[in-house]
Amino acid sequence: IMQFYERRARRILPALFFVLGATTLAAYFIMLPYELADYGRWLNGVIFFISNIVFWRESGYFAGASELNPLLHTWSLAVEEQYYILFPPFLWLIWRWRMRAVWIILGLITLGSLVLSDVMATRMAGANFYLLPTRAWELLAGSLLALYLLRKPQPTGRLAEALSLGGLISVLAALLFFSSATPFPSFYTLLPVLGTVALLLAASPQTLVGKFLGWSPMVGIGLISYSAYLWHQPLFAFARLLAAENHPPLAVMLTLSVLTLGLAWVSWRFVEAPFRAKGRISQRQIFGASIAVGMAFSACGAALFYSNGFLQRYPADETAIMALSNNEYGDYVRTGYRQVAGRPLSADKPNLVLIGDSFSQDFFNVIKEAGAFSDYAMTARYIPARCQISFGTDYAEIRHLIAAEYRRMCETRSVQQSDVDVIREADIVVFAARWQSWAASRFEQTLRAMAIPETTQVIVVGSKAFGANRRDILAAVRTAGISATARSDADVLAVNDILKTQSETAIFIDIMRDFCPQGCPLFTQAGEMVSYDGRHLTAEGAKMLGAVVFDSRLTNIGFEEDSKR
């Protein structure tokens, strides 16, 4: 078992540490402090092989885009290493029994993990994707094959040709036809996994597929594949971080793809290969060096995290822009809203019901910061932005309008009859969302289907986009100071125009035209950020927007004295 761990250390750690060193150095100069603080936490996740757990716990609507994380790819390395740490001792414990019992035990665990992954695919997709219990069956498939080959020879002849060709076709089919709409892992994942098993079992050098895979260019790719895996995500993530709207040109990404292969060859030739030569470095040395370097990276990660990404490097007037992460700002957006979400209607006070996604959470904060509707009991019903606010149309008719990967979720997470029952009992109902054109163009039909009583005041809040991420905000404040503005988003303006024509019986609030008549302000008069991600509001931004909305649109119904009158 110790020899096995030694082989894993030689295979995995030298190249990993080499790439982590280069990535950490680049991160220091490229990432903003709040990003660098997150990077420090991710770095420790990588070192202790728990990055899959770290990324699972951090995944969510308000988390930064995953493709901007230079260490995201290490989730799969963490899953593998968790398996490789646990599996040898477990196999040693059950090896005392007959081989048939070992087969049964491992087979049942494999089957259980597979079934669990299919069940979790549509219920807890994040945990299903990242965590070992739902990924173990993919690795166990290889272990079961290894057990089989301990006692049985590889197939030969026509059977080997058929199995190896079928395996290659299966892997390629998964590559070509699986999409973000494919639940993964799930029963669908059997296609590439069993295809890989068939290749390992039957693609000997005597088969056509085996000869193809043994062709020297293919072998060369295989030799550098681990290093290429390590290099590609940092290069792509840093390019996205530095590009306008995080979308580098295709030429840049193609160039980085070639650079990935070049760096992979260098690290394979000068890092991987030397450390895998046992004559040069002993087992004690490889373990000792691994622990020492790992602890050094862990200390570096802790320093990045606890120093808040070395925030003190920046001038005092810029630190507020870069101190908090998107998740920390997101806590403000959703915390107050959660206290009223799902709350039953009040029998003692007039009721205001909020319907929508994170933009309805934003509008809840606008109301609270403005001190409006203070004599109303508030409740909320959350509808994910991916599902949109739509009612009265058979789901089969609109299913194709929803992104494929969210269609199954939206069957139960879109507006339900129980939500409409609450809306009909409200005194005021507010619809606020990140509207898409298809839902905006059907909104009049949605209102008719809801059959909201005429005594209920309906307020519809248009979408918003302030067009600046944190790097844009930093650049703007350096050139224009706190008077900096961002251009209004033309697509959002167009959707709001559609929504306005569909909301003739309601009070319509066009945030973009009310708040951004001559460009969207990035800062309040006190120099505080209005939005941290170009779409969601800070507390100061909610106060500023509240003053505009309740002065221009809702003066007669927003405040206690007016509503009583």
3D architecture notes:
The chain is mostly helical and 565 residues long. The chain is built from 26 helices and seven strands. It has helices spanning 2-30, 33-47, 51-58, 74-94, 99-120, 125-130, 132-151, 157-177, 190-202, 208-213, 216-242, 250-276, 283-306, 316-322, 326-340, 358-370, 395-398, 407-413, 417-425, 437-441, 443-450, 470-480, 490-501, 511-515, 539-552, 560-564, and strands at 351-356, 377-382, 428-432, 457-461, 485-486, 507-509, 520-521. The protein has a five-stranded parallel sheet with strand order 2-1-3-4-6. Strands 5-7 form a two-stranded antiparallel sheet. The longest helix is centred in the N-terminal third of the chain and has 29 residues, at 2-30. The chain starts with a helix and ends with a helix.
Provide a brief overview of the structure.
The chain has helices at 2-30, 33-47, 51-58, 74-94, 99-120, 125-130, 132-151, 157-177, 190-202, 208-213, 216-242, 250-276, 283-306, 316-322, 326-340, 358-370, 395-398, 407-413, 417-425, 437-441, 443-450, 470-480, 490-501, 511-515, 539-552, 560-564; strands spanning 351-356, 377-382, 428-432, 457-461, 485-486, 507-509, 520-521.
